[in-house]
Amino acid sequence: MPSRAHLARLIADARRMVVFTGAGISTESGIPDFRSPGGVWSRMKPIYFQDFVASEERRREAWERAFGGRAGWVGREPNAGHHAVARLVASGKCAAVITQNVDNLHQASGVPADRIIELHGNASYATCLECGERHELDELKTLYEATGDLPACRSCSGIVKTATISFGQAMPAEPMARAEAETLACDLFLVLGSSLVVYPAAGFPVLAKKNGAMLAIVNREPTDIDPYADLVLHDEIGPAMSEATSANS
Ligand SMILES: [Zn+2]
Questions:
Q1: What is the largest CA-CA distance in the chain?
Q2: Range(s) of the domain holding residue 44
Q3: Is there a single domain that holds both residue 93 and residue 133?
Q4: What radius of gyration, in Å, describes the C-alpha atoms of the chain?
């Protein structure tokens, strides 16, 4: 029978693990799963990257959303699941956290930024599309509210955008390459709260398994990858991970 004790054993036996997280770990922090009914994309239309770049009107719409916090992506607190992952990283057992989330909650739970591989970017800050310089949302918002001018780069005046990977934008090459390298180097690949339907990200657990790693999946709903896994728990992530890591911390 799949159990939290079995998950604890897999974690105890691992020497180098990778944790892969999706929306399900953050719904327990109150962040909506954007693909679910009632999620962000059922309430408002996504703005494609090409339209953001081409149209001042679309940019204004995107910034109004970001400054209004209407997507509900950021500004929440990490939960027991994030904290359990942070303990695994701090113990040296978990080499990398690959995430589909843009909510910054792994960083907020204390995982060093260089251990986090963000496949879809990060919604908690912005970058210049020309020179890459980082801009903080609070500063951009203050300026926008004072002047009404669209955010522009303080260094090169280029277009500034939240640091997420938008619809119509290519998957980021460097995080994808790092995610693949970590996947091939691990002996346990643990999926937390991803339905594993979005490719190419969903290919990583299968790649890990084919490379000889153990594969464990904790997700409330069944996934297409479940048949490949050594352990599948249809369970709440916070409670399951708290129990499974208490023996290891
Ligand atoms: Zn710039």
A1: 61
A2: 33-72+121-164
A3: no
A4: 19
Collapse the DSSP code of 217 into the 3-class scheme (helix H, G, I; strand E, B; otherwise coil) and give the result: strand
159 CA distance to ligand 1 middle (Å): 7
- Reported pTM: 0.91
Q: How far apart, in whole angstroms, are the C-alpha atoms of residue 101 and residue 225?
A: 19
Using the mean position of ligand 1's atoms as its centre, give its distance from the Cα of residue 215 in Å. 42
Ligand 1 geometric centre to CA of 154 (Å): 7
Write out the chain's pLDDT in tens, 249 residues: 579 999 999 999 999 999 999 999 998 888 877 665 555 555 678 899 999 999 999 999 999 988 987 666 666 899 999 999 999 999 999 999 999 999 999 999 999 999 999 999 999 999 999 999 999 999 999 999 999 999 999 999 999 999 999 989 988 899 999 999 999 999 999 999 999 987 777 899 999 999 999 999 999 999 999 999 999 999 999 999 999 998 644
Assign residue 128 the CATH number of its domain: 3.30.1600.10
Indicate if 65 and 84 belong to the same structural domain. no
CA dist., res. 145 & res. 13, Å (int): 53
Q: Are residues 67 and 112 in the same domain?
A: no
CA-to-CA distance for 44 and 55, rounded, in angstroms? Answer: 18
Q: Catalytic residue at 6?
A: no
Ligand 1 is an ion; residues with CB less than 5 A from it: 128, 130-131, 133, 153, 155-156, 158
**156: CA distance to ligand 1 center in Å?**
4
Total domain count, the chain: 2
